[in-house]
Amino acid sequence: MTTILLAVVLPLLFLxxxxxxxxFLLVLPSRxxxxxxxxxxxxxxxxxxxxxxxxRLLGQAVNAxxxxxxxxxxxxxxAYVRAMLGTYEPDRYSAxxxxxxxxxxxxxxxxxxxxxxxxxxxxxxxxxxxTDLYAEHGALLxxxxxxxxxxxxxxxxLAAGHWRRREIDGALHHFDRVRExxxxxxxxPPEVNDLQLVKGVQAVFDGRADEAxxxxxxxxxxxxxxxxxxxxxxxxxxxxDWADGDPHQLGDWLAQLAEQxxxxxxxxxxxxxxxxxxxxxxxxxxxxxxxxxxxxSGAPSADDFEEFGRRADALRETDPELxxxxxVDGLVRYYFSASQPExxxxxxxxxGGTGLAKGxxxxxxxxxxExxxxxxxxxxxxxxxxxxxxxxxEDPERSQEDQALYRRLKAKFTPFGDAGDLEEGAVPHQRAPxxxxxxxSEALRRRIELILYTRLRDLPDDDPAKHAVRxxxxxLEQASAVYAEGAEVLHGAERxxxxxxxxxxxxxxxxxxxxx
Length: 516
Fold this sequence. Notes:
Blueprint: H1 2-40, H2 48-63, H3 69-85, H4 91-106, H5 111-123, H6 127-136, H7 138-141, H8 146-164, H9 168-181, H10 195-205, H11 209-225, H12 231-241, H13 247-263, H14 271-291, H15 302-318, H16 324-336, H17 340-354, H18 363-375, H19 378-393, H20 400-413, H21 434-456, H22 464-481, H23 487-505, H24 508-515
Helix pairs in contact: 1-2, 2-3, 3-4, 4-5, 5-6, 5-8, 6-8, 8-9, 10-11, 10-12, 11-12, 12-13, 13-14, 14-15, 15-16, 16-17, 19-20, 19-21, 19-23, 21-22, 21-23, 22-23
């Protein structure tokens, strides 16, 4: 009985096992393999309808219950199809990314899944994610050269965003990664090499000296690492040291920078501009040396002015159409001029700087030159004096004695000057009220000061001539105040002031020499 039972049961168990194995090994896989295989024939198509059909087939394959490698293959194909459909419907990129996340969770990344994920994230414009993926899985991605270009594009996009927000360090970081990748380096703007310099310059203008020094230091380091000139970065560091540095050492440093520019001019053609800036700073550094000298140490010596002239000429040579050399040279010589001829030479230098293409435009300097032209030289002073004497000579209120004095003064000064076309405020020839006489006295005071300015300006305050003029002007003011007591008091003060002015303009010894 037992034998019969085994003979019946064992075949049934065998058949059941074979049937089960055939179901799981043949029937069940065929449910997902058939749509999966059919979808693969559609993956190379660019037609949207065919790609949509492939996506539906892959969905059927997933619902058929595959497991293990089969499920992973279907998921990868599904992510690929949805990535292709993103061309027509951008939301599909997100769907592809979701499938890839599930696939990566189920198994570690492969060369194919890493590249597809990189591509999809680039399409989603998740550039931070793209750069992170390449940095983490570069070993897998380098198998596909196109992945380097994708990463370079994302780095360029991130660099542009930092640049627009003026985040210099971030922009430089991503531009450096593009250079390391060796892709799309021609897309890096030439100005990138100056970003650290720009950051330093902005920090200088904002008064952030420490940040400026760090930026210029980084710029110098970057240039040195890439075997580029470091002159611009060193100029920035010099500017940071300008306020507290030793002017003599700064001048020597500038001389070395000028030699570097001449020995290795920048490829961008900025050499002439750099040399001009360096020459100007060298000229100003010399002035700072003079300023640091002890008080009452005297004016610069002839050797000092010789060195000053060399540096000014060096600045002119770098840019003949720049007026800065004339501006500094003229003002310094004007300040230290000890005589009218020296002052006139300084004004001639300033005047020459106004006619250049990039000439002197400072309103204060132009006003100074205009005022000096209005004052004129000593010849103009004598001409103005003759006009004044002529007006008082024609004043009918003057006594015969006063008129005789004014005739002698006119005869004395006529050989040395000519009134010409000079127009001055005429003295009234009719009797005027008290207030008009006071105004006349004030006008006379201003005219005398103008006539004598060029002669007295260089004299010390305790000079007898200055003392005499101040005394005569004080008497004129007193006489004008008491004019009501009699015109003779005022006329006498005016007579003394005019006579004293003539004595200063043309001392007796000069008159004697003229007669001889």
